[in-house]
Amino acid sequence: MKIRRTTLATTLSLLVCFALLPKAPAAPETALPGFNTADGQNALLRLTTGTFNTAIGFDSVVFLTEASLDTGVGAGTLLLDTEGTNTAVGAAALLNNTTGFANNAVGAFALLNNVGKFYNNAVGRNSQLNSTGDQNNAFGDEAMFNNAAGSFNTALGDDALAACIDGNSNIAIGDEAGTGIVHGSNIIMIGVSEVSSAFGEADNTCYINNIWQEPVGVGPGQAVFVDQDGVLGFTTSSRRYKHDIKAMDKASEALFALKPVTFKYNSDKQGMTCFGLIAEDVAEVNPDLVLRDKKGEVSSVRYEQINAMLLNEFLKEHKKMQDLEATVVQQQKGMEALTAQLKEQAAQIQKVSAQLEMSKPAANLVVNEP
Fold first, then answer.
1. How far is CA 321 from CA 5, 81, 308, 312, 317, in A?
2. pLDDT, tens digit, for every residue of 108-160?
3. E strand or H helix at 332, and its extent?
4. DSSP state for residue 364 in the 8-state scheme
5. Are strands 232-233 and 225-226 parallel, antiparallel or unpaired?
6. 72, containing H or E segment
7. Domain ranges in the chain?
8. If you write DSSP's letter for every residue of 213-271 in order, what string do you get?
9. What's the CA gap between 106 and 74, in Å, rounded?
């Protein structure tokens, strides 16, 4: 990469220039006064009252005078530092640092451009060529390579967050993870480099690779949610986690006012038809059935709560069906009893009719003589 070759050439030129400085006496391989140790041309060249410093290598820790607790191992490490409490291991690590403190750089050119910032940690060749960012952590060759002003970033893996220039509070884990982030902030990328969605490097977003379309095990699964504090886990259902427990009763009847729709997401390039609800419409029916974003605006529907309400309505209808079936059974039994009574009455009527027929006197035949 052109920028990397330019950085290397500039650094080597700088080291050559300092090589032309008046040579210091040969540095001893034993401790100097003040518990300092120097080994290499110009190592700890200007040190006066500083203590507990270690400089090993050509032009290492050259400009330090009164500060303490610097450790530079490698040519040009901490060359310009005057503040102390920094650790640099590897050629030109923390080379341009002057007033920055509590920085740790391990690897050739690690934290090369850090000048006056603090609490940065970089492990790996060309890792975090930081200039004005604070409290970054980069582990891996060329991790956070282009970082200039970003702070509170963590990059773990070769080339992780390599393109990030001034983004803040990003986390990238995995080789080349987060290489698509340039200016974004508060982005988490685990095993993901570029993001193909329409959101691009959307702030306040988490991307995790190898989850989409990957099946879970054959055993029982657990639905996972994210709460308002960003905690990932499952929803508890035990009584010991709840209070104000009471029957849902008619509260679930709000479902009858909802308006299911079909729709397509603006960011979906495939234009897939979806089925669901509009959060703003749901909020008008029952505000407890929606979630709001950090700005307080309605953002999503609590479908899992609607499922519970559907269950309540189903159970209510099921109870009605059971009651109706019980009524039908009672009515059937009543009809059977009534039918039996009618049959018995019909038999009795028939019997009485027969008896009446038999009790009638015989008819007398009268013959009229002419």
1. 80, 84, 20, 14, 6
2. 999 999 999 999 999 999 998 888 899 999 999 999 999 999 999 999 999 99
3. helix 303-358
4. P
5. antiparallel
6. strand 71-73
7. 228-303
8. T----SS-----EE-TT--EE-----GGG--S----GGGGGGGGG---EEE--TT-TT-
9. 10
